[in-house]
Design brief:
The chain is α+β, with helices and mostly antiparallel strands and 438 residues long. The protein has 16 helices and ten strands. Strands 3-8-10-9 form a four-stranded antiparallel beta sheet. A four-stranded antiparallel beta sheet has the order 5-6-4-7. The protein has a two-stranded antiparallel ribbon with strand order 1-2. The longest helix is centred in the C-terminal third of the chain and has 24 residues. The protein binds (R)-mevalonate (MEV).
């Protein structure tokens, strides 16, 4: 067993690698070589990446792909996607092409408010706390002026501060529930800085509030933090066309396709086991663009899934219908994204991804990301309700299998040609490779 290490973060990068390789690998030299193989030869670029986090030893590559032909609100986009799952970019591109011939995607930002909370304990008379809150409320704004000045210039800032009584659920528990507008930044640092100042103001002002008893003056702040639940930061993405234009597959009529597709969505609306996978497919598209544009995909994931369960039962994020002969497929989701601040100005490939999208505002990026999710969902449901998912998946996975077996260029060509007419499975590919190798 490896011994615990102290002061690890203080070691140099070389020392860290030495410690790791000698403690965790049977061939330390080879392991160190492997780790360093992924270093960038441009030392400044490497340093930039090293400093994103603590204890960096190397870079972890993910493919950056692009899905062209996304027609969104009449504008054509090439969408960057950072993802390892083999079929995602291909599926997005296919869905983009399909809808670009049918009017493209429509997207609208419905709202863009973010939430932060100061959670605190107050032991005393609730009426007095309410009076205290109303009295000091202007001070919350004045005490945060130095933080909010720049944000206000950009049209954002603190929208509302509310006092919430949560004592019915937890003894003596109250909140400052604050609504923010953060414009083009995701706003996490801005929100958290404001909240920590509110917490200080709250505690300080309570100490001298005349109506409070000694116990009431002693407000205990538990924590101050933004919420990743953003049900008022919503974007809608939609596609629609006459059912008669849905023709794509020779084995199935347009009407039958629409009917099967809508039923598949209905199943995800009522059946949580299916809804989770259905929404996972949506997140395949969303996360890939969120990651490529330097946004926080964990925050987005947490917020989206909480939203999918907002009515007390986990359900589909997307919906579909046919009305008066028109097929409509749409989704409304919460997305807290930024196009300034954070990694957006630092990571060279994030900067390139944003350039590729025409340096969008946060609102425009919300629209693009939502569309990528809807396109992904459309592609998945189209495969699932017609050919099944494995045909496309395994075709894409073929390359991974060939790489695993170090196939030569010639072998690749032969295998790909063979599997144009045969069903791909791991064992079938391995068997065929062995046959041609004999
Ligand atoms: C796989 O990554 C995503 C799907 O399972 C989504 C779905 O089932 O809708 C294909």
């Amino acid at each position: 067993m490896t011994k615990a290490v102290s002061g690890f973060s203080k070691l140099s990068k070389e020392e860290k690698i030495h410690w790791i390789t000698t403690n965790h690998f049977s061939n330390p030299e080879q392991a160190a070589q492997e780790i360093k193989k992924y270093w960038n030869s441009d030392s400044d670029l490497q340093k930039l990446h090293d400093e994103f986090i603590e204890n960096t030893i190397s870079n972890f590559y993910l493919p950056l792909g692009v899905a062209p032909n996304f027609l969104i609100n009449g504008k054509n986009y090439t969408i960057p996607m950072a993802i390892e799952e083999s079929s995602v970019v291909a599926a997005a591109s296919k869905a983009a092409k399909f809808w670009s011939n049918r009017g493209g995607f429509k997207a609208t930002v419905i709202s863009s408010e973010k939430i932060g909370q100061v959670h605190f304990i107050y032991k005393g008379d609730t009426k007095k706390l309410k009076t205290f809150f109303t009295t000091i409320k202007p001070k919350f704004f004045t005490d945060t002026e130095s933080i909010t000045k720049n944000m206000q210039k950009r049209g954002g800032g603190i929208l509302e501060i509310e006092l919430k009584d949560k004592t019915a659920e937890l003894e003596d528990y109250f909140q400052l529930h604050v609504t923010f507008e953060t414009k083009d930044s995701m706003g996490a640092n801005f929100i958290n800085s404001c909240l920590e100042q509110f917490a200080k103001t709250l505690k300080e002002e309570a100490k001298t509030f005349e109506l409070f008893s000694e116990e009431e003056q002693n407000i205990q702040v538990v924590m101050s933090i933004l919420s990743n639940y953003v049900p008022n930061c919503i974007v809608r993405a939609e596609v629609s066309c006459p059912v008669t234009d849905l023709k794509e597959d020779k084995h199935i009529s347009q009407e039958e396709f629409a009917e099967k597709f809508i039923r598949a969505v209905k199943i995800a609306e009522i059946e949580p086991y299916r809804a989770v996978t259905h929404n996972k497919g949506i997140m395949n598209g969303i996360d890939a663009v969120v990651l490529a544009t330097g946004n926080d995909f964990r925050a987005v994931e947490a917020g989206v899934h909480a939203y999918a369960a907002r009515n007390g039962k986990y359900s589909s994020l997307s919906h579909a219908k046919v009305q008066d002969g028109i097929f409509t497929f749409w989704m409304e989701i919460p997305l807290a994204l930024g196009t300034v601040g954070g990694l957006t100005g630092l990571h060279p490939l994030v900067k390139m991804s944003l350039q590729m999208l025409g340096n969008p505002s946060a609102h425009e990026l919300m629209q693009i990301v939502a569309v990528a999710g809807l396109a992904q969902n459309f592609a998945a449901l189209r495969s699932l309700t017609t050919t099944g998912i494995q045909q496309g998946h395994m075709k894409m996975h073929l390359m991974n299998i060939l790489n695993q077996f170090n196939a030569s260029e010639q072998e690749r060509k032969e295998v790909v040609k063979h599997f144009e007419k045969h069903t791909v499975s791991h064992s079938a590919v391995v068997d065929y490779l062995q046959t041609i190798r004999k």
